[in-house]
């Protein structure tokens, strides 16, 4: 049975988630960036649209979209899937698409229009995207009257198994109705489309990367129907989902033995995967195997010195072991990378 509502919350609104480190050889960490100006945030608002959907059952749905090229708006496929009518509203005007380019598996759809008088955003690249990068989201989450802005940092970059696309995990929160909204760097460049989130108050938020949009704009095939031809990868059987999604249920339910089975398989199949190593170390921490966990957390920060969560758990282990110097060191690293992790 598919567990969409158990592991992940659909965002569409319808009907109104180491050995001891040498302190003298600490890696240089610099994730500071200039905050976007109010003028930039206001300018981007003009390219964020509300997607209105009429369902086959007679209901209505609301999602978000981003203008990504002349006469092209991107959204999530699950926003418009199996609908009998779609139109976009902005500045009091309504626009109806005449064609669709769909990547159903990756949940990215591009609507094509004629005479769409809206300016596109600038598309970035994620080739050099780093953990800790400050980002902000723009959407009509909560069915707001105007686009809502939320701020956060990149907390994970997840490789999809079947291609080179990378799912972006961030702390920039979004609410129901945000599907298809934009995730931007502080230059105001689009890096992803807000797509799904983990449940609970400490949720992580996931965005599909801009690289998918670029590829679709070049070689995507047009269609005139919204019939869903394939479920998105995040709405499949748990065992068929990427490992970074399989771990959500056990973490939420605090099923540490089950989590260990998943993370062990994860690092066996992908021994160099940063998130696989991190989650395995996290599992060992929860099982109170602190020495083993510490060794692996150190492997994580050796591979990625901006992994704030790895530093956070090294700080917690140092606290349990009453190593005051290590505590001070790791705390300083966490505060430098993501001060929201430590109160």
Summarize the structure.
Helix content is 31%, strand content 27%. It has 343 residues and is of the alpha+beta class.
Number of strands: 17
- Indicate the overall shape: globular
The top level CATH class name of the largest domain = Mainly Beta
Could you estimate the helical fraction of the residues in percent? 25-40%
User: Which structural class best describes the helix and strand composition?
Assistant: alpha+beta
Instruction: Please give the largest β-sheet.
Output: 9 strands, antiparallel
Please tell me how large the radius of gyration is: 21 Å
Q: Give the domain tally.
A: 2
Report the mean per-residue pLDDT as an integer: 88
What is the terminal-to-terminal distance? Answer: 39 Å
The name of the CATH architecture of the largest domain is: Beta Barrel
Q: Would you identify the regions where 5 or more consecutive residues have pLDDT less than 50?
A: 1-32
Number of helices: 11
What does this structure look like?
The protein is an alpha+beta fold. It has two domains: 235 residues, Thrombin, subunit H, CATH 2.40.10.120; 95 residues, Serine Threonine Protein Phosphatase 5, Tetratricopeptide repeat (Alpha Horseshoe), CATH 1.25.40. It is built from eleven helices and 17 strands. Strands 2, 3, 4, 5, 6, 7, 8, 9 and 17 form a nine-stranded antiparallel beta sheet that branches. It is globular, with a radius of gyration of 21 Å.
